[in-house]
Structure formats: structure tokens, C-alpha cells
Amino acid sequence: MMIQLKYYIERCYPYGTTFIITMMLFCNKICFVDSEHLPTALDACNTVVALIVGFLGAILPVVLGMKNESKMVSYLFECDENKLFLKYIKETLLIGVVDLFVTICLYFVSDIKNRDLASYGFYIWSYMGISFLLLTYRSLKNMLDIIFMSDNQMINDRYYKSQKQREEEKQIEEKYGE
User: Fold this and answer.
1) Which of 94, 95, 88 is nearest to 146 (CA)?
2) What CA–CA distance (Å, rounded) separates 63 from 69?
3) Which of 66, 80, 81, 129 is most buried (most C-beta within 10 Å)?
4) DSSP secondary structure letter of residue 113
5) What is the torsion angle, in degrees rounded to the nearest 10, for the CA atoms of residue 34, residue 35, residue 37 and residue 43?
6) Maximum distance among all alpha carbons in the chain?
7) Are 131 and 18 within 8 A, CB to CB?
8) Residue 72 above 70 pLDDT?
9) Lowest-pLDDT range, 2-16, 27-41, 48-62, 64-78?
């Protein structure tokens, strides 16, 4: 039960946190769509997204190379039945691309006559940008954990235990009520 809760929290916290922050912006009517500094912020967003996607592209071969050379890392990938590592990378890249698209659309915000529509674009951009940063944190944290995790930590990591080990632990928890 605790493992499932941990799994769902890890899967959902970037989106939930981002939703709360975006709703706080929306409820407090904080919108910078008419700010003279919006193009600068959009440029910064494009740069950050490009750098992060490039960094992920550069570090991914290192981790995958370790998969073939390290018994422990290959064990970790074999036991990752939910393919979390792959899902996290895909989610990060997808949100990054969507964030780039929304950013490019916001460059044309001065051409939008309906200011409410432009404001919604700002909130969508805020949501995408914040979620991209949180997803990036989650992906990089997992990559760094894989790279720097000791063998004992990897063996004891409950996320990557084999199905048989998890079933045995579940039976013990049910038997002793832990």
C-alpha cells in the first residue's frame, strides 16, 4: 500500500503542484500578457527548454551505456516493470515541446484582439513552463540516482525490486499487519 502511494505521489506531484500554482495565479488575476517584458521572458523560456532538452539528450547515452556495462544498472532496468524511467523522460520531452509551441504562440499575443483569450494563453504557458521544470527535476533526480547509487542502495530500492520480492513482502505485511 505504501509503495503504491509513493508511486502515485511521484507520478502526480509535478502536475498537482503546477495546477495549484497556476490556479493561484489565475485566482489572484496575476497575468503578465500585457507586460513589456513578456518577449524577454519568452526568450528565456525558449533558451531554458532548449538547454534542458539538450542536456537530457547528452546524459541519456551515459545512463544507457551504464545499462550495458554495469550489472546493477542493468538489474535496475530489468526490474523496472512499469518502465518509469522511460515514461519520465518521454513526459519531460513532450511537455518541453508543448511548452515551446505555446511560447511561440505567445510571441503573437499582441495580434490577439480578445484579451481574455490572450490571458488564458498566459496561464497555459505558465502551467507548461512550471510543469516542465518539475518534470525535469524528477527525470534528472532519477538519472542522478541511477548514476551515483551504490550497489546496496540499488538492491534495497523498493521501486526496483522484482515482482517476486514485492509479493513476498506483501505477504509478510499482511501476515504481521505492518
Assistant:
1) 88
2) 10
3) 129
4) S
5) -30
6) 66
7) yes
8) no
9) 64-78
Distances (CA, A) of 136 to 39, 71, 96, 163: 23, 26, 9, 28
Please state the pTM of the whole predicted model: 0.78
pLDDT tier for residue 1 given thresholds of 50, 70 and 90:
low
**Cell numbers representing residue 125 in the block:** 504557458
CA distances from 162 to 78, 85, 86, 88 (A): 9, 16, 18, 20
Q: Which amino acid is at 51?
A: L
pLDDT tops 90 at residue 17: yes
Structural contact between residues 107 and 39, judged by C-beta atoms closer than 8 angstroms: yes
* Rounded Cα distance, 63 and 108, in Å: 39
Section 51-74 average pLDDT: 78
Higher-confidence residue of 106 and 161: namely 106
